[in-house]
Design goal:
By secondary structure, the protein is an alpha/beta fold. The protein has 15 helices and 16 strands. The strands form 2 sheets. Strands 5, 6, 7, 8, 9, 10, 11, 12 and 13 form a 9-stranded parallel β-sheet that branches. It has a 7-stranded mixed β-sheet with strand order 3-2-1-4-14-15-16. Helix 5 links the parallel strand 8 (162-163) and strand 9. The radius of gyration is 21 Å and the shape is globular.
């Protein structure tokens, strides 16, 4: 396969920025280049250095003056909820029962699931999201459709068949045993096939019996390298109901700990209303608190306390949470996250925001050796960002003088129109 060289302004993070002007946290080349061969980044650096390493027949694609970064990573999203996004409801539980559980029943149909897998990935790629961690429906057919389409497009995707055996319509429930068996089957069929990764996926404690959480814990012990995804402490009413169902637990977090699900592989969606004891337990386990800002605002769930989470050493991620979230765009998601922290009196730098959406989320998944950076040897999932994509952005760009200002402009006014090009494993898949 012929190699390709992408030229442009390149940005990649080496660690979480510790200050607004932490220039040691990233690598930026004003005239940079990425040499791509066999789906991976073979070399990265200044154009002058990289072109010298390229073969004579290399294809050069010049994206100047745009910014090249690693593709965005969305670590909490619901594949079957495309058509419930922007549904009017007062809170989480009303939204689930009125819209979501109704819609997800349709994913028992293989043809329906296959159609929406195509639409789902089309939308993610349009937004510059090259990896996502998705909840499929309770039906194995939905997971099969999700992973088959990801494999067809050579995407690195994570997903799981939801385990849910109570407090949902009968057509949308499994059993402790069938949830376990189906998950093992999905793992056998899809984990490690193409670029796919399977996650163990008990939806949340309300919709799983103790027997099912025990089965999920058994899976976690059998497959210790697999990610675990679930929901935690999103909404006050949810928390109260959960504790009624598990009266023996000290708190919501303790439920997952009792069943072996609170580990360094756990992605805990929302994690808003946490006690000091829960904060300590999550930090000790090395689990990840996944901030879903547009969803938290849309459903009125609460304001994520990033400063407290960070101060106590909890790992973080940021996600869209479609369809409770209101935008597929990580740029829009970063903007809402910034505003939430402003309300809490905690200022987040644009450097930290872009670290989180790329390497930070990759670190949270344990996959930053493959995705989330522009490091040589990693998968060539790359996006091209245009900070002057709209008239309003172009006007503002006339006064931008620093990289930090450009990033802040992208996250504040940017959306899918700012994503000029997307490369998956080095191949262009969309264009402006």
């Amino acid at each position: 396969m012929k190699s390709r060289l992408l030229r442009g302004r390149t940005l990649s993070f080496v660690r979480r920025p510790e200050a607004r002007d932490d220039h040691a946290s990233y690598i930026f080349e004003e005239d940079g280049a990425l040499l791509i061969a066999d789906g991976k980044i073979a070399a990265a650096g200044s154009y002058g250095d990289v072109i010298g390493k390229a073969p004579a027949d290399v294809e050069v694609v010049d994206h100047r003056p745009h910014l090249l970064t690693a593709g965005f990573i969305d670590p909490h999203i619901h594949f079957p909820q495309i058509q419930v996004t922007a549904s009017y409801a007062a809170n989480l539980l009303e939204w689930l029962n009125t819209y979501t559980f109704v819609e997800e029943q349709r994913f028992a149909d293989e043809a329906h699931a296959e159609r929406f897998a195509k639409l789902f990935f089309d939308e993610l790629l349009r937004q510059g999201t090259t990896t996502a961690v998705a909840y499929c429906s309770v039906h194995k057919a939905s997971a099969d459709a999700y992973f088959a389409e990801a494999a067809r497009r050579n995407l690195l995707m994570v997903g799981g068949k939801v385990m849910m055996d109570r407090n949902a319509p009968e057509a949308l429930t499994d059993t402790a045993q069938s949830g376990y068996d189906d998950t093992r089957s999905v793992i056998a069929d899809w984990h490690g096939r193409a670029r796919n990764h399977v996650a163990i996926t008990p939806r949340f404690a309300i919709t799983s019996t103790p027997a099912q959480l025990e089965a999920a814990g058994a899976l976690a012990r059998e497959y210790p390298d697999l990610l675990i995804q679930t929901h935690l402490s999103e909404n006050d009413a949810e928390i109260a109901y959960t504790l009624e169902l598990y009266p023996e637990a000290a708190d919501y977090t303790d439920i997952y700990a009792r069943y072996g699900l609170l580990t360094g592989k756990a992605l805990l969606g929302h994690a808003i209303h946490l006690s000091d004891r829960e904060i300590g337990a999550i930090a000790e386990a090395g689990a990840v608190a996944v901030h879903c800002p547009t969803s938290n605002l849309f459903l009125g769930s609460g304001l994520f306390d990033l400063e407290r989470i960070r101060t106590n050493g909890i790992r973080t991620a940021i996600a869209t949470d479609i369809g409770g979230g209101s935008s597929y765009s990580l740029l829009r998601t970063l903007d809402e996250a910034y505003k939430i922290q402003q309300l809490r009196g905690f200022r987040v730098s644009p450097l930290e925001s872009f670290w989180q959406a790329t390497r930070g989320n990759g670190d949270a998944l344990g996959l930053s050796d493959r995705i989330g950076t522009l490091d040589a040897g990693t998968d060539a999932d790359i996006i091209v960002l245009d900070a002057g994509a709209t008239p309003a952005m172009a006007i503002r760009m006339e006064t931008v003088t620093t990289l930090e200002e450009e990033l802040f402009l992208l996250q504040t006014l940017g959306d899918d129109r700012s994503v000029s090009r997307v490369y998956v494993a080095g191949e262009p898949v969309s264009a402006a």
